[in-house]
Design brief:
Layout: H1 2-27, H2 30-33, E1 63-66, E2 74-76, E3 85-87, E4 90-92, E5 100-106, E6 109-116, E7 131-135, E8 139-143, E9 178-185, E10 188-189, E11 195-197, E12 200-205, E13 208-215, E14 235-239, E15 247-255
Antiparallel strand pairs: 1-15, 2-5, 3-4, 4-15, 5-14, 6-9, 6-15, 7-8, 7-14, 9-12, 10-11, 12-13
This protein binds magnesium ion.
């Protein structure tokens, strides 16, 4: 009898506490629920986007960043001509030559990029077909061969790297052309450098909505959640050299601040 009274007493005492904890868990953002690159974060379901279509034509108000002929609009990290390969209408990452940056700078924009991971499958997880599309040279949409290649959810293809896994895995097989259509709203800072409004992104991967107006937590980074640092309103688009020979073609952008 005495034991039951004690049990009831503890139940009455702890139930509200437990409820509060559970409610808090429900209202937590995914970023609070999951550690960066958390291997336990659920992987998104696979969606077959269908076969690649023809090149998506650039609209008349777009700036052509790469038309398949040369890298004249691009520089490497030191401001020199990039040493990436250009052939058959695409550019290809040449490992250890560094990432490349567009000569022109952009803030809010709509960006179209086509990419292909190497047909010959090599490596696994983050070592397979890794590259990246950086908005403002700071905020990465991950490029990775995620076709039958398991990796942490916030590092998958079309993830906002380290922050948001894609809603679904819409990868085509290695070697096939894939597309990203990215709508990017840059962060706004006040005169003291404080964030007035964070960056936002919407991403379509092979025509499939995978990021819907997500609010970026800061610059994307490996293993750390970096805080925003005030930067200029326009910065280059950049593509990552992660050592894998990923290809890019048909890159165009619409400047939404003109
Ligand atoms: Mg990357």
């Amino acid at each position: 009898m005495r034991k039951s009274i004690i049990a009831v007493f503890f139940l009455v005492l702890f139930c509200p506490l437990l409820q509060t904890c559970m409610q808090e868990n429900d209202t937590m953002t995914p970023q609070e629920k999951w550690k960066i690159h958390d291997p336990d974060r659920p992987l998104p379901p696979v969606v077959d986007p269908g076969p690649a279509g023809p090149l998506l034509p650039a609209p008349s108000d777009a700036v052509i960043l790469f038309d398949g002929t040369d890298l004249s609009g691009w520089v490497d990290g030191k401001g020199n001509t990039p040493r990436w390969k250009v052939e058959n209408g695409y550019m290809e990452v040449v490992g250890k030559t560094g990432s490349i940056l567009s000569g022109q700078e952009f803030g809010d924009c709509q960006l179209h990029v086509e990419w292909a991971s190497p047909e010959e499958v090599k490596g696994e997880s983050q070592g397979r077909g890794n590259s990246g599309v950086f908005l403002m040279n700071t905020y990465e949409v991950q490029v990775l061969d995620c076709y039958d290649n398991k990796t942490y959810a916030d590092g998958m293809a079309a993830a906002v790297y380290g922050q948001y896994p894609p809603a679904v895995n819409a990868c085509r097989p290695p070697g096939e052309w894939q597309s990203f259509d990215i709508i990017f709203v840059r962060p706004r800072f006040d005169e003291e450098g404080r964030v007035v409004s964070p960056a936002r992104m919407t991403v379509f991967h092979n025509g499939v909505l995978v990021q819907h107006d997500v609010e970026l937590l800061g610059p994307t980074a490996w293993k750390v959640r970096e805080k925003y640092k005030a930067h200029s309103d326009r910065l280059p688009i950049s593509f990552q050299d992660h050592g894998n020979p990923v290809r890019y073609r048909n890159i165009w952008i619409r400047d939404l601040e003109k």
